[in-house]
Automatic annotation (TrEMBL):
Spans through the membrane: 12-33, 40-59, 71-91, 178-201, 207-227, 239-257
Species assigned in the record: Haladaptatus pallidirubidus
Record protein name field: ZIP family zinc transporter
Keywords: Membrane, Transmembrane, Transmembrane helix
Length: 259
């Protein structure tokens, strides 16, 4: 029991570490508000997108396929993407469509323009982060060591998300208190979600965690396509594609080079 609590605390801390990139990005955005142009933010989003592509393709789907086979990996992947896109579509109807936009190219709605959009944006931000946290919990099942490349990849991709989204929130007139409260809350939820992923699936057969892993990968890819890529490539600077490739390469090397 003591050992399990120790592992749960460890998983939660890794989840907090990965999610802390969101809060760091938000703090930078609010503290230095107005000093980052859309092109700079778009470049960071492109880099973060490349990181996520590497993490989900090299680590998540590969692990899901190896542990659960093609059926579990395919089923989970498609269900995850479907679930994210469906929920994201509903949230978009309530003002959260542009929650990860910095506001210079496409503005987030203010509460006056779209009542309830602040709550929808908060729920959407949680939706974006939960799959990553659950994956971290799954990576410690059966006593396995945490994948440092996984945590580093999620951290690196979260910083630009927090930077862009918080910049857009600030431009839409939301207070610094709201922004910091939102991302601090999501950070805590990230830790709890990581622990929950380990606790709830720790005794399941290998096909179930593999399906959940693929489900998370599908959700992350759908989020990338619907949320990060539009910001990265809207009125983007030259070589944004190259920046995305560099992000992929950095994550690839972190994952593949032995510690």
């Amino acid at each position: 029991m003591v050992l399990k609590l120790h592992i749960l605390a460890q998983v939660a801390l890794w989840g907090l570490l990965a999610g802390s990139g969101l809060l760091i990005g938000a703090v930078v955005a609010v503290t230095l508000y107005g000093r980052f142009s859309h092109r700079i933010i778009a470049a960071t989003m492109g880099f973060g997108g490349g990181v996520l592509i590497a993490v989900l393709s090299i680590q998540l789907m590969e692990s899901a396929y190896d542990d659960g086979g093609p059926i579990a990996a395919t089923t989970g992947f498609l269900l995850g993407a479907t679930a994210f896109s469906t929920i994201n579509w509903r949230l978009a109807q309530n003002g959260a469509r542009h929650r990860n936009r910095c506001g210079e190219c496409v503005e987030q709605p203010s509460e006056t323009e779209h009542k309830g959009s602040g709550l929808a944006i908060a729920v959407g931000a949680v939706l974006d982060g939960i799959p990553e946290s659950v994956v971290i919990g799954l990576s410690l099942l059966a006593g396995e060591n945490i994948g440092l490349g996984l945590v580093a990849g999620f951290f690196l991709s979260n910083v630009p998300q927090g930077l862009s989204s918080a910049s857009g929130m600030k431009k839409a007139g939301r207070s610094s208190k709201y922004i910091f409260s939102l991302w601090t809350g999501i950070l805590l939820i990230s830790g709890m979600a990581a622990a929950a992923g380990y606790l709830l699936l720790g005794t399941a057969n290998s096909a179930i965690p593999a399906t959940i892993l693929a489900f998370a990968a599908g959700g992350v890819l759908a989020m990338l396509a619907e949320s990060m890529i539009p910001e990265a490539f809207a009125d983007a600077q030259p070589f944004t594609g190259l920046i995305t490739v560099v992000g992929f390469l950095v994550a690839f090397l972190i994952i593949r080079i032995p510690a």
